[in-house]
Design brief:
23% of the residues lie in helices and 22% in strands. It is of the alpha+beta class. β2 and β3 form a beta hairpin.
Length: 273
């Protein structure tokens, strides 16, 4: 990695770059690079340009769509509608260079604004009634995509998703069945915060920070903001949900399903309990 170099020309097996430095902050606080007048030569026989793109805003201007100083369409944050009624902009055309996942998220928000329908309206149709068939796909690799339909490669996360449990090297994320559903419970005592579960989560969450958590001692419970529970003497537990904590022996007053999840976790019989 060579930082603050701006390629200027390629020839004779040499990539010539301007040595840059950070200029003064602009109105937004960004320090744009400026040339020092010096050059750096790097031997190179092949160069792949990956310098980022900018939005071609000519179409916006032709139709009277408002843009910002970088040429991106100005849209309403909640609907992604432009200043022209009924005209929406999503993805790179609105954000600039971004990811496919962000473009899909934009499209969902836009479609909801246009139709008035929740994107969860048909979510139940994605759940396979045969859960075992979805679980059986785990660990099966299809190296030749031409020989298999893509649906067979899908792990059906809507039916059963335990990626964070599969990839945790310390087994700090466990799967329990409560109220007829598979749930992920995080075991705080066994986690070293390696981040594997965050990297592989298909829902872009942080399981070790967000999943319902089993705590081994009061100090860990106090020092965390995770929803979860701490086993106490005499069969009681201290439960935190929505930032509020309470002690209970029978789950009275807890949101639906939470007590079942606690009971299912306790059946794992961890030694530190």
């Amino acid at each position: 990695f060579r930082e603050l170099l701006a390629p200027s020309r390629l020839g004779g097996g040499v990539l010539t770059c301007e040595q840059m430095t950070r200029g003064p902050p602009d109105a937004s606080g960004r320090r744009s690079p400026v040339s020092t007048g010096q050059t750096v030569k790097i031997p190179a026989d092949t160069v792949i340009s990956a310098i980022g793109d900018s939005v071609d805003s000519e179409l916006y201007h032709n139709f009277g769509i408002s843009t910002d100083k970088r040429g991106k369409a100005v849209v309403k944050a909640d609907t992604l509608e432009t200043n022209l009624a009924g005209v929406y902009v999503v993805g790179d055309a609105m954000r600039g260079p971004a990811t496919v996942a962000q473009a899909i998220a934009d499209a969902i928000r836009c479609a909801q604004a246009i139709t008035g329908q929740s994107p969860e309206r048909y979510a139940a149709l994605n759940v396979n009634p045969d859960r075992q068939s979805a679980e059986d796909k785990k660990g099966v690799l299809y190296c030749d995509p031409s020989s298999v339909h893509e649906s067979r490669r899908c792990l059906e996360c809507e039916t059963v998703c335990a990626c964070c449990a599969d990839v945790c090297p310390n087994r700090a994320n466990i799967v329990v069945e409560a109220s007829g559903k598979l749930q992920i419970v995080h075991v705080d005592f066994m986690c070293n915060e390696c981040g594997n579960c965050t990297v592989f989560c298909p829902y872009s969450s942080d399981p070790y920070k967000e999943k319902f958590t089993l705590f081994a001692c009061e100090e860990d419970f106090v020092n965390s903001e995770n929803p979860g529970f701490l086993p106490l003497d005499g069969g009681a537990v201290r439960v935190r949900v929505d930032g509020r904590s309470a002690d209970t022996r029978d789950g009275a007053g807890l949101p639906a399903g939470v007590w079942d999840m606690i009971q299912a976790t306790m059946k794992k019989e961890y030694l530190f309990l």
